[in-house]
Amino acid sequence: MLTGMAALSATAVAGSIALPASAAAAVTGSQGSALPISPVRVPQTDLGLTQQSDAKIQWMRDSRLGMFIHWGVYAGPAQGEWYEHNAAIPPETYKNFVTVASPQQFTADAYRPADWAQLAKDFGAGYTVLTTRHHDGFALWPATHPNAWTCGQAPLSTDFVAAYVSAVRAAGLRVGLYYSPIDWRYPGYYDVTGTNCAANPWGYVTDPAHHENARIMKNEVYQSVKELVTQYGAIDDLWWDGGWLAEQGTDADAAYFWEPGRYRDPANGWLVDAPYGATESGTGKPLGLSGLVRQYQPNASVTSRSGWIGDYGVEEGGNVPTGPIRTGDLVQKAFTVGGSWGISNTPAMSFSSAMAVLANTFVRDMVALVNVGPDRHGAVPADQAALLRRLGGFMTANSEAVYNTRGGPWNPVDGQYGFTYKANTVYVHLFPGYTGTSFTTPLLGDAKAVRVYDVVSKNTLAFTTGPDGSVTVTGIDRTRYPDDTVIAVVLDRAVAPGDIAQGKTATADSVETSHGNLAANAVDGDTATRWCAADGATGHWLKVDLGSVRTLTGTRIVWEFDNTSYRYRIEGSADNAAWTTVADLTTTTDTGQVQTAAFTTRARYVRVTVTGLPAGAWASIRNLEVYDRPFTTSLDMTVGSVLGNGGFETGSLSPWYAWNSASVVTGAARTGTYALRVGPGPASAEQTITVQPNTTYRVDGWARVATSGDQAYLGVKNYGGTETSVAITSTSYAAASVQFSTGSATTQATVYCYKATGGGNAYFDDVTVTPI
């Protein structure tokens, strides 16, 4: 960390930490126990088409919950949606489930989509998604391709999609359509080249005619998708599935065949005939699948299962999500409450199992799409409907902690607890693996708790604030919803430090006006827009006027491209005349698209000057964010009062306890201005911290000894287990780390920085404690 900045009262400057768009890293230095800023999502371009902006997918993030409906001919035999494949039923025979009267006939005589929509509302869903066509090739609308097999044909002679769309909209829900390009009726699906037929249940073998058969299949897909996106009004979500070929490889591996991107190649080996495809308005270029959808449904979000990157990711299956918050893109957890996606003779999953999936989805900043499988008549099985309504009771009672929230601000602890937040409130979600009726929050940075309450009852809960700012809540009622007990911790300020540059006046010395890449785009809060200079020269700058002189703590810059070496300088000014460098990145080797710099300065204006560019890159910034609160980009929790002064940037030893000789000093810091000096020894600085039971923690820090041959230790004791420590013998700062696991009754632990042998001092800095 650079120090000694004279102008503008700049007291400390941190070198930037480069972040990939899909990851988070700590901003080190004097940020200490700061609260995390919200992870950023940057729309990516794939196959000529860019993902939808944050604004266009925000509805899905806010809704949090959707209801999936797998329904089709497979509801007749009621043995799952893959029954035709698994039982190797010839396609012509499979059609009998529609045309031949039997106890397995798909009759749809109780098809009432308004009942589905009401169930979705009772569940708390904001949207629904219906399988308009699954892998068997049966269309739930009167598709017009010559080979189409549809509900418009006898004996059904109807349009299920039209009635569904109408009912869902009438219920005030958003409309989603599922579509699979797989079609088991076509041998060419397993042998698109006609030269190498893949194994399949129906005994299709290699045949040169399969090349044309596959091309006709592709024509039907394009015609089908065109009808779905042009005949039913606004579609909010298109859920692609099955972009792979011959049930092999990945969806992206089959892009050469389906052409799922913006355009089709006129020289592709499987051409789409003009009546079935579409061309781009204005250019006449032949549209690929995603380009077709985007042209006719410009606001729709889509999954990645066509082979294009998609607007959001999907984690599929009924396993409970684990690990950190999903960052970099919106991720949907899709699972079924039955034994298969289509109806089968299996009971619905238990309430506790479903709750475990949902709650662990929300705290990881994911959204959920929960599937039901109606029967051959069109009715959702009673046990599935009852489960969704019971889950809806939880959603209603805890709505403020789920809807319109983000997961975080900290990563969850698997099986024990996690968090959601919005505005100035953190919601703590306690899971069955967490025991007890009290909870201590991670450190709250510069915020203070002003109220804590039970989210369901709204009753105020007792709490105490520790010397480190963490909050211990007592008297929590775990009986009402033991699968996810939610309490609200209200702070005196926003949970996530906010970007104070957003919406302010931005100017630049050079602007690419011909493409609308104005300076204002860099402060509009939208990573889908950008400022760009008018040429590829260096020296171009972007400046934001914050309106008044403020104490600033750092910036986050989102560049146009990832994996690009932008070199730059960040300056501050109080009067727009005298400028002081607050972060010098003119020699940085970072190539991350998202780069964060922490510093402390007083300024009204912030200017970023691009001093170095690789060939082909121009000075171009999607977001210039400026912060006036301590912040971090790490989502790891900071727990225990060690982090109250872990970087020792308060200049005080408190709340550490000194045994013999220990003090906070200048001139020996690894980062910032201050470090902890212990010695010459034996001497120690210790601190007792609050910890959670049944949790593994990692103590991290940096340490060195002043004299070669001396020895110091970073360790932990008094937690109910064996004292553990790591020895420090290096005369230059080196990372030190130890782990410890608490027992069922553990509530405290003592972390120590100990100088043992030798006549010199030991120095410690940036000590942290994190659950792992």
Please supply descriptive tags for the structure shown above.
single chain; 772 residues; alpha+beta; 10-stranded antiparallel β-sheet; 8-stranded parallel β-sheet; 11 helices; 42 strands; 14% helix
Work out the helix count: 11
Specify the helix fraction band.
10-25%
- Strand count, sense and closure of the main sheet? 10 strands, antiparallel
Strand content: 25-35%
Q: Regarding quaternary structure, how should these chains be classified?
A: single chain
Distance, first to last CA: 28 Å
Total beta strand runs: 42
**Which parts are unreliable, with pLDDT below 50 for 5 consecutive residues or more?**
1-32, 640-644
Average of pLDDT: 92
